[in-house]
Design brief:
Order of helices and strands: EEEHHEHH
Number of strands: 4
Strand content: 15-25%
Largest sheet: 4 strands, antiparallel
Distance between the termini: 30 Å
Structural class: alpha+beta
């Protein structure tokens, strides 16, 4: 079972591991990256700081625009694979439905105010 959260931090995000599928973007309707993690706060920080090389780093995907919390990593991986198979337009619809202004959902997690 999963719960969807699209605005603000998950309670106790910094201390607790939050299993989630997430989408990072470089700007509205720009390049998007879909990922899965067992610790959302830590993974978003890694994207923002660029400490891990890869697609998201190369394309400057540093803005958390969508995430979906899950109870198990297996469940989250299955959901990530499903989302990755979706057409781009459907991924954009997921973002637009939950976050129509493409605000940075993690802006207040790290003390910056990107919105």
């Amino acid at each position: 079972m999963c719960s969807f959260s699209s605005r603000g931090p998950v309670p106790d995000m910094r201390g607790d591991a939050v299993i989630a599928v997430y989408i990072m973007a470089n700007f509205r309707n720009g390049t998007i990256y879909t990922g899965v993690t067992s610790h959302l706060f830590q993974r978003v920080w890694q994207h923002r700081t660029g400490v891990i090389d890869g697609f998201a780093s190369e394309h400057d995907c540093k803005t958390l625009v969508w995430y979906e919390q899950h109870d198990s990593i297996v469940e989250a991986i299955v959901r990530e694979k499903t989302i990755k198979k979706l057409r781009r337009v459907w991924k954009l619809a997921l973002i637009e439905k939950a976050n129509p202004q493409w605000k940075d959902l993690a802006a207040d997690w790290f003390g910056d105010e990107r919105t």
